[in-house]
Amino acid sequence: MSSGDVWILGITMTKFGKRPDVETDELAAEAALGALKDAGVTMKDIGVLAAGNLMGGALGIGQQVQKQIGQTGIPVFNVANACATGATALRTVIMAIKAGEADMGLAVGVEKLSGAGLLGGGASRYDKDTWTPRGTDGAIMPLDGRVGTAGMPGTFAQVGMEYGHKYGGVSFELFARISEKNHAHSVLNPLAAYNKAMPLEQIMGDIMIAYPNTRPMCSANCDGAAAAVLVSDAKLKTLDPDQRRRAVKISASVLTSDPYEEGCQVLPNVNTLTRRAAQQAYEQAGVSPTDLDLVELHDCFATAELVHYDNLMLCPEGGAVDFFESGKPFRDGALPVNVSGGLQSKGHPIAATGIANVWEIAHHLRGEAGDRQIEGAKLGLAHVIGLGSACGVHILEKAS
Amino acid sequence: MIPVVSALALEPEPHLVANECTACGARFFGRRAACAGCFNEAFTQATLPTEGEVVAFTIVAFAMPGVPTPYVAATVDLGGTKVQANIVGVEPTPDHVHLGQQVRLTTFGLGQDTHGTEAIGFGFTPIGD
Ligand SMILES: [Zn+2]
Question: Quick one: fold of A152-217+252-398?
Fold first, then answer.
């Protein structure tokens, strides 16, 4: 009898960093082939493909990947959900398998961001000769920087400061120490874009991007891809013992968007949708936050990591600063957070991130994480958030 | 003179206006097809207070050409309605801006078009510091 669960059969991430040697579709293909080999299957076994590449626009990364690794005529879903794009690809395949439309599927996320500066623009729609109101807000010129900030650094800086205003205890140094933790963790991750520890003084003394986040406290733009082969419980039972042994159970898969609250359209509220996703995920998996052995959360900025301790309920409400100060989120602590180095150090190739975080958890549950292995890890949570907003939470469990 | 966004009213004194849902009172800057909170499709205009409190801020070091840096961007609570704007008239350093700071609406010129029409921007400036 099938449980209806969906399993990770194969999963991989490429080394994150600069990859000028390959095109985006080739990088995606590298991850996809890696996942298929890790699963011990071929494209012939795959019944559905979901893929994301946020900067690629309308090109259809899924079909490009097929042309690189195998065109079998299966349905392809090209997905885009900001920084939650990879998690959305996973979620799409999981839904297809749960719906019984396929018994095996492939999810791929890829991004080439090396050298990308501050992303912005939109100036062309405005008329400088005659001020003319445009858009639903009637703006006559670009507002970013003139009426508040629209950029990610300034937005996530305010997210952390807002938490400080509500509960107290935050400071530039506190946020910098969160970043120091993740950079220290990355030393043990050979696939991280940067794997150097950084002293606190160096982090605080680096270029200020948007107070209180300096450059090393922001996610690192880089190239990278990640992919996963997912399989139904019924199909898994028909596979070889070696394939079954390394399979990782997806105990919860949740995607939420931002419910309306006062102010959420002025300063994106990354908290409520994350808390809701976490609540739903714990309920689906039948576990509580204290059962977790490790967490990979979306530290796109040091300020974001703090609020997500609270949103994922790793601490009592309002207790994120105490949680950090207790040492729990360090790799030798009670609930290690971002042992991969996190987005600040491992890197953040946007559409790959939501699968790479899941790979990190699966890697530990399989006991294959080498020097950075969290001993005896049986249960882990991966979280991503894309502004706009979309939040993905996956809880993974070691096969028993 | 022309306001930088439709939410800025210049007469009789500069103030911000929001579109308020007639059913649940939710407030929006700019047009909405329906209320994001309750789906009601009718709105009325609400005048916002000109004084409020800084509930979040950042000091941004990089911006598009033409925007002076560093600048202070903040989320200001105007009597229960939050708005995003710059804090102006202070040194853009953490010593001069703080959470909970009381601020007041202010306006300033943002340049003229070829017909000589002045664009009017807005921001908030600390009260009594
Ligand atoms: Zn309403």
Answer: Peroxisomal Thiolase; Chain A, domain 1 (3.40.47)
Is the pLDDT at A117 greater than 70, yes or no? no
Interface test with B, best of A147, A156, A170 (most B CBs within 10 A): A147
Amino acid letter, B32: R
CB A210 within 8 A of CB A303: no
pLDDT at A128: 81
Tell me what pLDDT residue A114 has.
82
Q: What is the ipTM of this complex?
A: 0.94
What spacing in Å lies between the alpha carbon of B34 and ligand 1's midpoint?
Answer: 8
End-to-end CA distance of chain A: 17
Q: How far is C-alpha A322 from the chain's CA centre?
A: 25
The CATH code of domain A6-116+222-248 reads: 3.40.47.10
Write down the pLDDT at residue A122.
52
Chain A nearest-CA distance from B55, in A, is: 6
Assess whether pLDDT exceeds 80 at residue A123: no
- Find, in chain A, the residue whose alpha carbon is nearest to that of B87: A148
Q: Where are the domains of chain A?
A: 6-116+222-248, 152-217+252-398
Confidence check: pLDDT of A119 > 90: no
Q: Which residues of A342-360 are buried (b: 16+ CB within 10 A; e: fewer)?
A: bbbbbbbbbbbbbbbbbbb
Residue B122: name the closest of B77, B69, B83, B80 by CA. B83
Give chain A positions within 8 Å (CB) of B10: none
